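Re-run with default settings, no changes from the original entry. Doing this only to confirm the output is reproducible before filing.
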Amino acid sequence: MFPRKLKSEREAMKDYDSSCPVAHALTVKEMSPDDQPRERALKHGCKVLPTADLWAIVLRTGLPGKPITEMCRDLMRSCDNKLFNLERMERGSFMKVKGIGTTKALQIEAVMELIRRYCGETVGNRVKIGCSRDVYDVMRHEIGNLPHEEIWAIYLNRRNEIISKEKMTCGSAVASVFDLKKIIKEALLRDAQGVMLCHNHPSGNTMPSVDDDRITEKLRKGCESMDLRFLDHLIITASGFYSYRDQGRL
């Protein structure tokens, strides 16, 4: 009787691995209908879905071994599960999540831009500005979350209704790019009776700088010389604002 040949450790492990079921992430199609984001939304409406599952409906496809639902949970974890933080992120940050390439990053950017535009729209008649809070409500979704500075001018008619709001500058220090002539020219072209200035502080600090004070005074004098009402200058962040008018400085 010949002695039985013992299997090597590697062969034994191979037999063990092949005898055990291999755990893998379920694809969306392998999930029960009650767990599939699209089917749940069709049955119960989008309101019942967590944010990650809403993104899964938008982005649609995952990777082999990594379904879109898991990828979108990773996306939301990257921003501490807050859309507020996601809106401040740039394309390169989205693409750090495994499975999100250029196309999916652009889809995310497009959705966030649609949200900003929706929040900035007005329905029906022109918006009437009665106080600084009204201006903040109009502009905070436009510039409150931006990672760079922007200056916007708001033009109003005699009834303090918004005629238009225009981006004047983007991405640089406010004082170095402030263009008084351009702001006044746009007001005259629109036959505006009043002008408001808004710009954001990406730092989140609403307090004005010396440069902010300087351009406020410069625009006040410029409007006065053209018989335009300079109504206010607001410094805007995601969580609040500073109004020169409210502080008695205009």
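The chain has a mean pLDDT of 84. Residues 15-119 form one domain.
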